[in-house]
Design goal:
Blueprint lengths: L3 H5 L3 H11 L2 E8 L3 H7 L9 H8 L4 E7 L3 H9 L12 H5 L14 H11 L17
Antiparallel strand pairs: 1-2
Length: 141
């Protein structure tokens, strides 16, 4: 998911381009506003932590771009490309390393496991909104 700062900074295309160039296949994409209720489900594991309220405030402060990507080891690849959550630890060349200064305004969310990816996808997408298609370029990656 691309968070509100990405839209405000006009970086949506840049981030999507990086994921496409890696060879991942985009199967779901939508621009949406997240309600506080949906944000609380998304960040349920962080409830009660000191950073929970700022997380919810940020994710509900403007539209997000929800996405579903497929590919071999896609969860691990996207997390690696996203970089460390802490900007000071994010390597140059990663999305966070190149575009983030503050942890609170982190520009991308990447699922941390296949199980969480499935849970998060079900929060933001109906099955009918996911389009599986034959990727003719996949053999080149």
């Amino acid at each position: 998911m691309l968070k509100p700062g990405v839209l405000n900074r006009r970086l949506v295309g840049e981030v999507i381009s990086r994921l496409e160039k890696k060879g991942l296949k985009l199967v779901g994409l939508k621009l949406m506003n997240i309600s506080p209720e949906l944000a609380s489900k998304h960040y349920a594991e962080h409830k009660g932590k000191p950073f929970y309220d700022p997380l919810v405030d940020y994710i509900t402060s403007g539209p997000v771009v929800a996405m579903v990507w497929q590919g071999d080891d896609s969860v691990a690849l996207v997390r690696k490309m996203a970089g460390s959550t802490k900007p000071e630890d994010a390597q140059p060349g990663t999305i966070r390393g190149d575009f983030c200064i503050h942890t609170t305004n982190n520009i991308i969310h990447a699922s941390d496991s296949d199980e969480n990816a499935a849970r998060e996808i079900s929060l933001f997408f109906e099955d009918s909104e996911l389009i599986d298609w034959e990727d003719q370029a996949a053999k080149w990656y």
